[in-house]
Amino acid sequence: MATKKKILAIIGSTRARSSNLFLVTEMIKASADIFDISVYDSISKLPHFNPDLDTTSPPQEVAAFRKQIMEADGIFICTPEYVFSLPGSLKNAIEWCVSTTVFSKKPAGLITASASGEKAHEELQLIMQTVETVFTADTTWLIQGIKGKFNAEGILVHQETQSQMHAFIKAFNTLMER
User: Fold this and answer.
1) Among positive and negative, which fits the CA dihedral 155, 39, 108, 72?
2) Is the distance from CB of 120 to CB of 114 less than 8 angstroms?
3) Nearest to 80 by CA among 71, 89, 72
4) pLDDT grade, residue 1 (50/70/90)?
5) Bridge partners for 37 per DSSP
6) Per-residue pLDDT tens over the stretch 121-171
7) Which residues make beta-bridge pairs with 63?
8) E strand map for the chain
9) Disulfide-capable partner of 114 in 9, 34, 75, 80 (CB 3.0 to 4.6 Å)?
10) What does DSSP say about strands 74-79 and 108-114: parallel, antiparallel, or unpaired?
11) Residues 148, 161: contact at Cβ < 8 Å?
């Protein structure tokens, strides 16, 4: 049996009952046979980016975040859109990695799940291209109207979105095998 690929899922929302977290939870279940997905749940604990602190000894939270990215075979970023952009906490987290190569050549699945999400989805792809992650059109996924796709318990009940999720997982696995 092949070893499962280790994926780090970074959630752009800090909300406890985030639709983005619900989606990643569904993806964990749907891909359990091929991926070992861990969720980075400390995005709100990262200090505000400060280039003066981005040295060989960055803040402990930053060093731990970078280490998790380095140790992963690939990453998922699943984020909402706030005011036609990425949430500040996600942008902050990525900024702490710009001076490093932790994202370079790392396979990435980029998901924007929001009410609309178009502008944030564009921005996420541009930023992740800039930090040199590897993704394809099939490993990017814009989900509009995300809240209506889950029931009150946080279970994905929208059939089309379930199908899209399985296609996304398959495409990401193909990217990982390159």
Assistant:
1) negative
2) yes
3) 89
4) low
5) 7
6) 999 999 999 999 999 999 999 999 999 999 999 999 999 999 999 999 999
7) none
8) 5-11, 35-40, 74-79, 108-114, 140-144
9) 80
10) parallel
11) no
| 33 φ, ψ (degrees, to nearest 5) | -80, -15
Tokens of 157: 């009940």
Q: Which domains are delineated in the chain?
A: 5-176 (3.40.50.360)
pTM: 0.96
Which parts of 72-149 fold into alpha helices (H)?
88-95, 118-130
Q: Which DSSP symbol is given to 85? A: B
pLDDT tens for each residue of 70-97? 999 999 999 999 999 999 999 999 999 9
For the chain, give the mean pLDDT.
97
- pLDDT score, position 47: 98
**Six-digit token string for 52:** 């003066």
